[in-house]
Write a structure and sequence with these properties.
Helix content is 84%, strand content 0%. It has 107 residues and is mainly α.
Length: 107
């Protein structure tokens, strides 16, 4: 997740072409394993009995996110300009880090 935040910050900086391409690659490389690992770890977190239901909720939430978030970012980019994509990605990465830190805290 930290790699995604670094890549998003680099993209927000709006560097010349090559660092911008590397930033997009870093974001993709950092975020690619998160969904499959969460799905694979679900039975250990919720138990074998509830795992199919939990995975169903995870997949439906991912599908909703795949549909809604690009729409919102596209509408924002159309109204404000393409420069808004970097701050949105950086804010999303920061939010993801904060939620993960809150979830990982012992209770």
């Amino acid at each position: 997740m930290a790699g995604a935040a670094v890549g998003a910050a680099l993209l927000w900086w709006n560097p010349p072409q090559l660092p911008g391409y590397l930033a997009l690659g870093l974001i993709g490389l950092a975020l690619a394993p998160i969904f499959p690992l969460l799905i694979a770890d679900t039975p250990a977190r919720v138990g074998r009995q509830l795992a199919p239901h939990a995975v169903g909720f995870q997949v439906s939430a991912a599908g909703l996110g795949f549909a809604v978030l690009p729409l919102l970012i596209g509408v924002s980019a159309e109204r404000v300009g393409l420069e808004i994509i970097g701050p949105i990605l950086a804010g999303s990465a920061l939010l993801m880090l904060l939620v993960n830190a809150a979830a990982a805290r012992p209770q």
